[in-house]
Design brief:
Bound molecules: alpha-D-glucopyranose, calcium ion
Largest sheet: 8 strands, parallel
CATH superfamily of the largest domain: Glycosidases
CATH architecture of the largest domain: Alpha-Beta Barrel
Shape: globular
Strand order of the largest sheet: 9-8-7-3-2-1-11-10
Radius of gyration: 24 Å
Strand content: 5-15%
CATH class of the largest domain: Alpha Beta
Distance between the termini: 47 Å
Number of helices: 14
Structural class: alpha/beta
CATH topology of the largest domain: TIM Barrel
Number of domains: 3
Helix content: 10-25%
């Protein structure tokens, strides 16, 4: 197809992403085929029957590229290869074929804001002189101070500490500084450089040609920066969500959309057009730009993830986002958990107001208290998580699920320091425990082959699995329809049956702690009732298709969701 061709909108599969249930795989922690303790691509292939049994429409794979893992793989050495510890390109092709054979689409994670410091371009930049073309692919500046010994300005890294790192020049003398929004092993690319643009288009084609159906765009609201801006307010330097103007020096600048317009042209060369979803932590009013048909098409909406388990907050978020989607023609996205946040089964078991990072009143991480943290009511957390998930899966739009939530996994609080990997932990000692706790490998088997490994590695997993993971193992839940896994399978299967127009109607309830909406489906209405309160609530007359907690005498107990179908 020539580059100018329009996508074939008559292709019924072109819009699959609008209502997809997408399951996020964190490859190094999903399944380990060769039992060396690190999840791998053949491991994913070996679990295709499991993925098919879930009833998902697509998988999104976090980065699988060669990487020193300074940031869990979001420090990419080579965008067009596979980390040898995870497999080969042939393994990747086999995985895509196996997933496609069961009707599951594949979304790859693309990381355009920064490369790793081991990327060929960065090594070339270090070996080249200040002002060279090789340095211009990144953001190098002379230092301040008499001898350039101070960073060019006071901007900080999102992971803590300064955002500038000084290099040694080729002759060994102290030299220029480079900019990194994240870890120092993640130098930011210069998106004013045409070569950078070209190279990412090549990468999009590389994976699209291999059958990848879509891309998740990491830090999509970064990329374009005004490095000359004098921004004195360091308190808001990483708070893009506070800015509705497009004038923040580092985040969500208007110019970024010209990049995605270029990408969209390339993605539309394919049939069906390749999908894309932006990770953009921006002001709610600005999300639509990322999700426009001329841009990426979809953007994550983290509003529900940030909300407490609270009827009023949920209702407000849902109404606002569906309204926005309707106004722009985009589809909504919903998500509670991913590899960056405390698992929702744990969040909802923490005192209200702990926030999505699980911070306590003193700003310190609750999880620092170790173990399955003392303050967490794990049973309540899981019960609420199932209620929230059942509500989410009934909403119009696409739902993003994170590996392990289908098992009801809790965040792992206690991880020995020598196993810690997240740079957030090391850069914010004693305050922020980081994101390793949601990245502990999945327990596949309850009976460990050796050591404490539940189906992962013969000597244990790269992030150790705690003994209590045993009770969550796939082997324990697999045959039990009453398990959390059984609930996910049932809900996802029903979700397909109940697909209907992207519309919902709120129905009144006497109780402000209860949310009730309905959606038109084939020959009837699909009612969804979530009880956020403490007293049982009545359900509409009809067939109860699903309930996260069994109704008693026709009433739905606290912290539960039911789906009820009523006939026309
Ligand atoms: C995104 C990723 C996160 C990573 C960061 C830098 O926010 O989700 O895991 O650390 O980008 O690439
Ligand atoms: Ca392995």
């Amino acid at each position: 197809m020539p580059a100018t061709a329009q996508p074939d909108r008559t292709d019924p599969s072109a819009d699959w992403w609008r209502h997809a249930a997408v399951y996020q795989i964190y490859p190094r922690s999903f399944a380990d085929a060769n039992r060396d303790g690190i999840g791998d691509i053949p491991g994913i292939t070996s679990r295709v029957p499991y993925l098919a049994s879930l009833g998902i429409d697509a998988v999104w794979l976090s980065p699988f590229y060669p990487s020193a893992l300074a940031d869990g793989g979001y420090d990419v050495d080579d965008y067009r290869d596979i980390d040898p510890r995870l497999g080969t390109l042939e393994d990747f092709d086999a995985m895509v074929a196996a997933l496609h054979a069961v009707g599951i689409k594949v979304i790859a994670d693309i990381v355009p804001n920064h490369t790793s410091d081991r990327h060929a371009w960065f090594r070339e930049a270090l070996a080249s002189a200040p002002g060279s073309a090789a340095r211009d692919r990144y953001i190098f500046r002379d230092g301040a101070g008499e001898n350039g010994e101070l960073p060019p300005n006071g901007w900080t890294s999102i992971f803590g500490g300064g955002a500038w790192e000084r290099v040694s020049e080729a002759d060994g003398t102290p030299g220029q500084w480079y900019f990194h929004l994240f870890a120092k092993e993640q130098p930011d690319l210069n998106w004013d450089n045409p070569e950078v643009h070209e190279d990412f288009l090549t990468t999009l084609r590389f994976w699209s040609d291999r059958g990848v159906d879509g891309f998740r765009v990491d830090v999509a609201h970064g990329l374009k920066k005004d490095m000359d801006a004098v921004h004195a307010d360091l308190d808001t330097i990483h708070r893009a969500e506070l800015f509705a103007s497009g004038e923040h020096p580092l985040w969500d600048r208007d110019e970024v959309h010209s990049i995605y317009a270029e990408w969209r042209k390339v993605l539309n060369e394919y049939t069906p057009p390749r999908a894309a979803v932006a990770e953009a932590w921006v002001h709610a009013d600005r999300r639509a730009k990322y999700a426009s048909p001329e841009g990426l098409g979809q953007a994550f909406n983290f509003d529900l993830l940030k909300a407490d388990f609270d009827a009023g907050q949920f209702r407000e978020v849902i109404t606002k986002n569906l309204g926005e989607a309707a106004a722009t023609g985009a589809s909504s996205t919903w998500v509670f958990s991913n590899h960056d946040v405390v698992r929702h089964a744990t969040r909802y078991g923490l005192p209200k107001g702990s926030g999505w990072e699980g911070a306590g009143a003193d700003g310190k991480d609750w999880l620092l208290n170790g173990g399955r943290p003392a303050e967490v009511d794990a049973a309540l957390g899981l019960r609420r998580a199932k209620a929230a998930t059942a509500l989410m899966l009934a909403l119009p739009g696409s739902a993003y699920l994170y590996q392990g939530e289908e098992l009801g996994l809790q965040e792992v609080g206690r991880i020995p320091e020598e196993y810690r990997q997240d740079p957030t932990f090391f850069r914010n000692r004693g305050v922020d425990v980081g994101r390793d706790g949601c990245r502990v490998p999945l327990p596949w088997e309850a009976a460990p082959a050796a050591g404490s490994s539940f189906g992962f590695g013969s000597d244990g997993a790269h992030l150790p699995q705690p003994a209590w993971f045993k009770e969550y193992a796939v082997s324990v839940q697999d045959a039990d329809p009453g398990s959390t896994l059984g609930f996910y399978r049932r809900a996802l299967a029903l979700r397909h049956e109940l697909e209907g127009p992207e519309r919902l109607e709120w129905l009144g309830s006497e109780d402000e702690d209860v949310l009730h909406f309905s959606r038109p489906v084939d020959r009837g209405q699909w009612h969804v009732v979530t009880n956020f309160g403490t007293a049982p609530t009545s359900l509409p007359e009809g067939e109860v298709l699903l309930a996260t907690v069994e109704p008693e005498e026709g009433k739905l107990p606290a912290d539960a969701t039911a789906w009820v179908r009523t006939a026309l």
